[in-house]
Amino acid sequence: MARMIPKKLSSTTKSNAEKTLFQIFENNLSNDYVVFHEVWWQHIGYIVQDREADFIILHPDRGIIILEAKGGQIAYDHLNMAWYQNQHKMKISPFKQARQIKFKFLDFLSKHDNFKNKDFCIGQCVAFPDIDGVVNNLPSEAHEEILLLRPQLGNISGWISSVFDYYKAEGHFTKLGEQRTDSIINLISPSTDLLIIQAFGFIFYLTLFQNLFKRRQPRRIVII
Q: Closest Cα to residue 69, out of 36, 116, 45?
């Protein structure tokens, strides 16, 4: 089973496509995969922008895949170069969206020393888990090698491997490695302790209060 972060699907997740994929990734990918769901980070450029990926899939030997999921009925209007989901026009092509998120995430990582060389494999793909096939040709932005449809869900491990192979053909990459995989986990979802440290004046006040009313040596009070 893959290591899912978070471990359980959030109760706020509304997308049935994401719910389906979460369970499939968890149950059918091996335990050397780490899969993030609903990842948020801030991209700092000329302005600060919040960015989100539906899924980020990590493998220490293969690399990183950014996956954008769209459920329901999907259609493409070739005359207007527009994508539709359940008859509603999408604001942006899901393939363009996945590509943009990939580069924003790569930019986020490259601000840290372990990732500055950008020598690892990173790619993007799109999932239409409610769609069984494509009737006509796909637009040039939508390569079938990076489009996940319902028939491929039965062999998700093999399909994810094929996506890594597709991007590895673009050039020579070094392994992401266990250390950098752990670094990404710590950047996105670190183990965090939060401390509350009270002001000295408040401790002094409590000590004085004990002196006046308890008539005994005050104990040292540390509030954490």
A: 36
